[in-house]
Amino acid sequence: MPAEGLLAASWLLIALPLAGAAVLLLGGRRTDRWGHLLGTATVVAAFVLAVACTVQLAGLDQRSADVELFTFIRSGELDVTAGLLYDPLSAIFALLITGVGSLIHVYSIGYMAHDPARRRFFAYLNLFVAAMLLLVLGNSFVALYVGWEGVGLASYLLIAFWYTRPAAATAAKKAFIMNRVGDVGLAIAIFVMFAQLGTTSYAGVFGSVGTLAGGTITAIGLLLLLGACGKSGQFPLQAWLPDAMEGPTPVSALIHAATMVTAGVYLIARSAPIYDLAPTARAVVLAIGAGTLLIGAIAGCAYDDIKKVLAYSTVSQIGYMFLAVGLGPAGYVAGLAHLLAHGFFKAGLFLGAGSVMHAMNDSVDMRRFGALWKKLPVTFATFGLGYLALIGFPFLSGYFTKDAIIEAALDRGDVWGWVLGGVAVLGAGLTAFYMTRLMLMTFFGRARWEDGVHPHEAPTVMTAPMVVLAVGSVGAGALLVSVFPLSGWLEPVFGEPAEAAHVVAPAVIGLVVTVVMLLGVLAAWLFVGRREVPVTAPVRVSPVTRAARNALYADTVNESLFMRPGQWLTRALVWLDNRGVDGAVNGLAAGLGGTSSRLARTQTGFVRSYAMGMLGGAVLVAGALLAVTAG
Amino acid sequence: MSASLYLVAMIAVPAIGAAAVAALPRERGLLAKQVTLGVSLVVLLLAVLATAAFDVDGDRFQLTTSVSWIPDFGAEFALGVDGIALVMLLLIGVLVPLVVTASWHEADHGPRPTRVFFAWLLLLEAMMVGVFVATDVLLFYVFFEAMLVPMYFLIGSFGGPRRQYAAVKFFLYSLVGGLIMLAAVIGLYVVSTSQLGEGTFAFDALRQLDIDPEVQKLLFLGFFVAFAIKAPLVPFHTWLPDSGAEAPIGGSVLLVGVLDKVGTFGFLRYCLPLFPDASRFFAPFVLVLAVVGILYAALLAMGQSDMKRLVSYTSISHFGFIALGIFAFTTEAGTGAVLYMVNHGLATGLLFLVVGMLISRGGSRQIGDYGGVAAKAPLLAGAFLVAGLASLALPGTNSFVSEFLVLIGSFPERPVFTVVATVGIILAALYILLMYQRTMHGPPRGVLLQQDAAEPAPGLGTGGATATATATRTAAPGTLRVLDLSRRELVVVAPLVALIIGLGVYPQPLLDLIEPAVSATMSDLGGTDR
Amino acid sequence: MIEAPDLSYAALAPLLFVLGAACVGVLVEAFVPRDARQPVQVALALVGTVGALVTTLLLSGTHETTAGGALAVDGPALFLQATIAGLGALSILLFAERGLDPARSAFVASAAVPAGSPRDRELLTATRVQTEVYPLASFAIGGMMLFVAANDLLVMFVALEVLSLPLYLICGLARRRRLLSQEAAVKYFLLGAFASAFFLYGLALVYGATGSIRLRDIREAGLDGGGDTLLVLGLGLLIVGLLFKASVAPFHTWTPDVYQGAPTPVTAFMAACTKVAAFGAILRLLYVAFGTAEWTWRPLVYAVAIVSMVVGAVLGLTQTDLKRMLAYSSVAHAGFLLTGVLGLGAGGEGSGLAGTMIYLLVYGLTTIGVFAVLTLVRDGDGEASHLSQWAGLAARSPLTAAVMTLFLLALAGIPLTAGFTGKFAVFRAAIEQGAWPLVVVALLASAVAAFFYLRVIVLMYFSEPVADGPTVGVPGVPTTVVLAITATATVALGVLPGAVLDLAGQAARFVG
Amino acid sequence: MTLTYYLVLAAILFTIGAVGVLVRRNAIVVFMCVELMLNAVNLTLITFARSTGTVDGQIMALFVMVVAAAEVVVGLAIIMSIYRTRRSASVDDANLLKY
């Protein structure tokens, strides 16, 4: 139904940060002094507005509001209207984005205080928030695509924020390219929708998708999934996410942990009506989710770079979410709940990591940390809570959301249910292991600091957001699952949550998971906590470790499969174009020239040879004429 | 002035202006520049007026003028615009003043007088307008060929080190195409003679002809080759990298931004309506060329070390998209293709201009001679980025709309080709970001470290080139002070950036102009098979 | 008893003008004191040619035969006579130029003096000028005008000789580089005589086959399907003779040498006027005498046209001497003209005749213009005709370069120049007769030819000037006039050719 | 008795002349060969005049003689002038102009 009241103004959600970005980018140095404040203000304002809108939405009897803005592209059959859809699903994302966004803006004020280009940083952040909001609020796949690539750009700009570092520049490029690969899938999916249904709006597509052949729907589903994998760093497109850590830490927290990378989950959840009709596609989602879950967890165990560990953890956690939404109606809510919870604690963890780096002169090598708990009490506390939430410590948020996913998996009731559930539980164990390892190496043990490092707690402007997020990490899960059930809120989107007969009682699952988690912690303590952590990574290690350190050779594969052949192909083509295509032309010219000078030799300058030529010509002419007339 | 005279004026004003500028005494270089700028602005104004006078729901051709020209050939001096031609006029109107501003110091230090450069520029503008507004095929052909001469002299007299080779190559390639087209033009005339009693070149009359399919194929090929060379489609493309690289920046912009569009414009205006059966027959082959071109040229672009060559190759790739859109035979794709022509003019125009500004500072076209420029010249980098993003068709920039329309419009008809073409957007991201990263990102490199390198290579001086060079020579040894955009350069860049983003967000007005003409073309195409 | 043939003097007026002027010119040589000769001769020759031009225009519309049917005074004849007279007048003006050469003339003071002898060297610097060229040229022009009007093979032969003999002579009259000039004369003469022998033999055979030499009678006796060997052989030999004059490959071999060796104004004269005359005769012979039997010669002309275009275009590519390059270009253009000749439709319809005539006019004007420019660029030893000497000319003399560029573009057939109009006309005629493959070849050939025209432009504009390059002389009144007229015409015929096309269209009907 | 013999003879003469042009070096002789060709034509003309019973052929023969005479005048003049300069009448010596 068309929106009125505040909802009608929900486009401001996007406009505000966008305006902020515009002002900061065009304003130039003039805005250096107050730019960061403006940037933060716009996002906070957006958050307030989002809250208000959501409240109003809650008030509506039929919880969904369309905002028609203007005609974007109309030509022939195609008619794309720029419009927003404010419904429960987009609402929670709007809240997450603006909420966490605000906190991270605040944090960045402190974190980037000494960076000369802070203004640019806030401009990009605002740009990101705007694009991300467009992504989740858009009312058609085209709008989503626009936001989709918009966040890609923002992420590119922010990863490459310190562009004088080649690593950063390369990582940014890598991220953009691998995202583009996914985008191609998304784009083609949209083409198919238009070709088959003549529309690209959610309403139109979901309304008539049922009329399509199963194969087509599956194709759409898989193509969308490709897009989702690109954006969310899922297998086989996961390799860019860890590199993205080259960006400033607040970026990692906001974009590469809390919001952007979860866009894939949003896409699949949003496209529920399509996946409901495409079991094959959904199965693939499950497979990818489960696989990535393990890949991420395993890789996370081996790295010494604190941000990389967190990054792989993110990959793995998003794997959980994919697994959840891959389960269908049973899993959507669980997946989204985990998404929100993850948004809180992972953001918190990253901010914590940022504060640690802040204290350690921007070092990320955990082998040079240790014993920081007394130097950085606040960070330690908030980080710790986030840690506990992540590994699913009972009654913290991760505990509820992750268990819900495992439940949903098992509730399939078939053998695959058990397999997936098992994977999920195993993942929980690994998570516990690598996170504990991280905790131990960072905050406990002996101080292995480089010389001249004097750890000190971050300023309040940074710690405050961490505290808030820590609180969220603790509370979110309970809040979303039991106190204020997300399932009810999302009912208009996913319909009545089917009360499945539990295969295994939730309590049992909780117990099992907790045990496995504790085993993981124990293992970590045995491997890391008990003995001295060497300052340099040991070289002679098991192939498993080596594989894990190389993230299961994802990059190697990409390079040897795409990059190198691509470079060879390019070189070959350049040669072909110059020698072959252009050469043919120049060769023709040269040939003519040669012929010319050779023919010119016949022009000997001797009268008698000229006469000879004429006589010959005359004979030929006469002969030709006779031949023509005779024949 | 009556509306129908706008078009005549758009040809006459720059032509007269060219003569006037050429007549100026050698030392009045500044005056020549001012006159040129003024004239080009007048043309822009006329283009806007013409647009205002154009009735979207009106006849196919409007603002028409027609004077008997060569009665014996049945040729008329007939002008008129449809939506397609109109948007191209707008593009010309916008680009030329910016090019003039950007080339302000282009000819200051060469051996040849400044006025010559600007006179050729204006003459070129007149010819470009003519080629788009002609509604008489012979007149079109005349402009089509005559257009070569000014560009030939711009490249040859003011171009880079290999300008002679490039100029001749450009001229001969286009001439060969043009001559083959001439055969087809005459053939068309002969057919019209036999069918209508007396020969004519009037487009509207020729559109009514019912030509035997076999003949159609021959005539189609005649036109097609000419346009495919102009556009250019692989494998007729090898002249463009040379010309694009050797031409002075202003020349490159107009060459790729407008001149080459004549090719794709020709497909749409002449090949499809005049030879519908042949068009349908050859469509698969053309589409193969188009799609192959998209990928092939994109890969080649990645392999270039010379920025201007790289940009030229990206254009070849883009022309593949345009051709795809035209030969998919759907209104959406066709409209997208036309919009693509405009957007590509703006985006690649900006890209060329910015690259030129960079070259004018570094005095080298080699990517390897640059690095970390963003740190020294953020505005330049920003403009570069916008141009780059536009040419990789990022949503929010104008190119996205057109590329999206082309692809989504082609998909229902030609899914396979479209899917392959879509892969091209990955490559687009690659070649743009590779160039951007190598030149703008990373630590300062190449010319930023050695200061003598600031000497602009002959013919490469764009904009503040020489000014910068002198500034750098006085700069502290060891470090080259790369100045950020000068005020004049900002004036050049700002409007283009604004248009790129504006048209990216709200393209509908242009689409409304374009669509009627395109759907008319498509109906010409479809109208004949029943 | 043979009664005297009827003579319509009015219809013959153009011829009488020129030939009369020529005869008077001879007397002038004999009786007027040397110092006064030059102006008198020039005036006389101009009166003759311009008078002829005017009278032809006055006669326009006439459509009759006279002198007992030996002469045709019809549209084509008058149009081409006018063209020849006009171009002739321009050439005379070029002859009369005295401002460029320090020795006041392009022609040798005394042809009898051996080249390089002391006497010759002292004469070289003397300002004494020779004026035989004017009557000689007038005779040649008269011969050409007779050639295109000849309605009878014998008259055609006589005309051929009348136009050739004076040309042989004036080719050898160069003031500088006399050895080359004389060599050119000898070659031209020997080969020309050789060729006219063929023509004559052909005449005899046709006479034997048909018992008449009147073109009309030949047509009526015509080739009835089977093909009369004598007649066919005769036709072949006649064509050979004419193709030689039109310098069509493979009978072009003399062209480069003679063009290069002859004094530049003479080259201009030959290139422009002889071409017109020769094609006038070819058209008349093929259209009138063999028009009904075009199936016999069409394949031949088709082939010869291709050979000529290709040979001309390809050989032109590597020439380093401008005059020689232009000679090959003229061979190529002969080929283009033949495509027009092929535009003869069934029953004399078709725009081939008109097209060819237009092309001749256009080509003549452009050629004279281009050679006129050539006479301006000089070094110590006469014209600087070597390509390399033209490098960077635009910097030294923008106007000269601009005019040269205009003519070159016209020769290349770029639109908005006269060259395009001509090309369009002939190609249209050919395609109307379904000869489109030939036209495609022609277009490709002209693309190749365009390369060597472009090369000159590249040299003039894009190359840096050479040290001790040639000087660009300041043309006197005559050359200036020529350049002005030709340049204007080249542009006018390119932009608004309507009127002239119309004229040619109306004129394009043979009598008899 | 048939006229063909005369025509054949004329043809033979013509050929001899043509070949002579090709094989002889001396400009004068070459020129004489051309004259021979012309006279072969004359013979042909006369023969045909006889066969067709018209006088045209004979008249033409006279014309040809006149023209030939004129040609001789011009030709010898040219050949003389170059002979004076080069002290040689060999046509092969005159090949400065080539290619």
Automatic annotation (TrEMBL), chain A:
GO CC annotations, alphabetized: endomembrane system; membrane
Main location: membrane
UniProt domain NADH:quinone oxidoreductase/Mrp antiporter transmembrane: residue ranges: 139-424
A Pfam family hit: Proton_antipo_N
Name of protein: NADH dehydrogenase subunit L
Coiled coil (UniProt feature): none
Topology relative to the membrane: Multi-pass membrane protein
GO MF annotations in UniProt: NADH dehydrogenase (ubiquinone) activity; NADH dehydrogenase activity
Residue span(s) of domain NADH-Ubiquinone oxidoreductase (complex I) chain 5 N-terminal: 73-122
Transmembrane segments: 6-26, 38-59, 89-109, 121-138, 184-203, 209-230, 251-269, 281-302, 309-330, 378-396, 416-440, 461-484, 504-528, 610-630
Keyword vocabulary terms for this entry: Membrane, Transmembrane, Transmembrane helix
Subcellular localization(s) per the UniProt record: Endomembrane system; Membrane
Domain of life: Bacteria
GO biological process: ATP synthesis coupled electron transport; electron transport coupled proton transport
NCBIfam families: NDH_I_L (TIGR01974), PRK06590.1 (NF005141)
Automatic annotation (TrEMBL), chain B:
NCBIfam families, per database record: NDH_I_M, PRK05846.1-4
Keywords tagged on the record: Membrane, Transmembrane, Transmembrane helix
Organism: Blastococcus saxobsidens
Superkingdom of the organism of origin: Bacteria
Annotated family: Belongs to the complex I subunit 4 family.
Pfam family, one: Proton_antipo_M
Localization of this protein: Endomembrane system; Membrane
GO molecular function, a single term: NADH dehydrogenase (ubiquinone) activity
GO biological process, one term: ATP synthesis coupled electron transport
GO cellular component: endomembrane system; membrane
PANTHER family tied to this protein: NADH-UBIQUINONE OXIDOREDUCTASE CHAIN 4
Membrane topology term: Multi-pass membrane protein
Signal peptide per UniProt: none
Protein name: NADH dehydrogenase subunit M
Transmembrane regions listed in the UniProt entry: 6-24, 36-54, 83-104, 116-134, 140-158, 170-191, 218-240, 252-275, 281-303, 310-331, 337-359, 379-396, 416-436, 490-506
Chief location of this protein within or outside the cell: membrane
Chain ranges of the NADH:quinone oxidoreductase/Mrp antiporter transmembrane domain: 134-425
TrEMBL record, chain C:
UniProt entry tagged with the keyword Translocase: yes
Uppermost EC category: translocase
Pfam families per the UniProt record, alphabetical: Proton_antipo_M
GO cellular component terms listed in the entry, alphabetical order: endomembrane system; plasma membrane
Recorded GO MF terms: NADH dehydrogenase (quinone) (non-electrogenic) activity; NADH dehydrogenase (ubiquinone) activity; quinone binding
Lipid bilayer topology: Multi-pass membrane protein
NADH:quinone oxidoreductase/Mrp antiporter transmembrane domain span: 150-446
Transmembrane spans: 12-32, 39-58, 78-96, 133-150, 186-210, 230-254, 266-287, 299-318, 325-346, 358-377, 398-422, 434-454
Keyword terms, alphabetized: Cell membrane, Membrane, NAD, Quinone, Translocase, Transmembrane, Transmembrane helix, Transport
Function: NDH-1 shuttles electrons from NADH, via FMN and iron-sulfur (Fe-S) centers, to quinones in the respiratory chain. The immediate electron acceptor for the enzyme in this species is believed to be a menaquinone. Couples the redox reaction to proton translocation (for every two electrons transferred, four hydrogen ions are translocated across the cytoplasmic membrane), and thus conserves the redox energy in a proton gradient.
Subunit structure: NDH-1 is composed of 14 different subunits. Subunits NuoA, H, J, K, L, M, N constitute the membrane sector of the complex.
Entries under HAMAP family matching the protein: NDH1_NuoN_1
Family membership noted in the UniProt record: Belongs to the complex I subunit 2 family.
Protein name: NADH-quinone oxidoreductase subunit N
Native organism: Blastococcus saxobsidens
Automatic annotation (TrEMBL), chain D:
InterPro entries (alphabetical): NADH_UbQ_OxRdtase_chain4L/K, NUOK/Mnh_C1-like
Compartments, as annotated in UniProt: Cell membrane; Membrane
The entry's keywords: Cell membrane, Membrane, NAD, Quinone, Translocase, Transmembrane, Transmembrane helix, Transport
Residues passing through the membrane, by range: 6-23, 28-49, 61-83
Topology in the lipid bilayer: Multi-pass membrane protein
Main localization category: membrane
Catalytic activity, as annotated: a quinone + NADH + 5 H(+)(in) = a quinol + NAD(+) + 4 H(+)(out)
Cellular component terms (Gene Ontology): NADH dehydrogenase complex; plasma membrane
Keyword Ribonucleoprotein among UniProt keywords: no
Domain of life: Bacteria
E.C. designation(s): 7.1.1.-
GO biological process, one term: ATP synthesis coupled electron transport
GO MF, one annotated term: quinone binding
PANTHER family: NADH DEHYDROGENASE SUBUNIT 4L-RELATED (PTHR11434:SF21), NADH-UBIQUINONE OXIDOREDUCTASE SUBUNIT ND4L (PTHR11434)
Functional description taken from the UniProt entry: NDH-1 shuttles electrons from NADH, via FMN and iron-sulfur (Fe-S) centers, to quinones in the respiratory chain. The immediate electron acceptor for the enzyme in this species is believed to be a menaquinone. Couples the redox reaction to proton translocation (for every two electrons transferred, four hydrogen ions are translocated across the cytoplasmic membrane), and thus conserves the redox energy in a proton gradient.
Subunit details: NDH-1 is composed of 14 different subunits. Subunits NuoA, H, J, K, L, M, N constitute the membrane sector of the complex.
Entry's family note: Belongs to the complex I subunit 4L family.
Name recorded for this polypeptide: NADH-quinone oxidoreductase subunit K
Species assigned in the record: Blastococcus saxobsidens
Gene (UniProt): nuoK
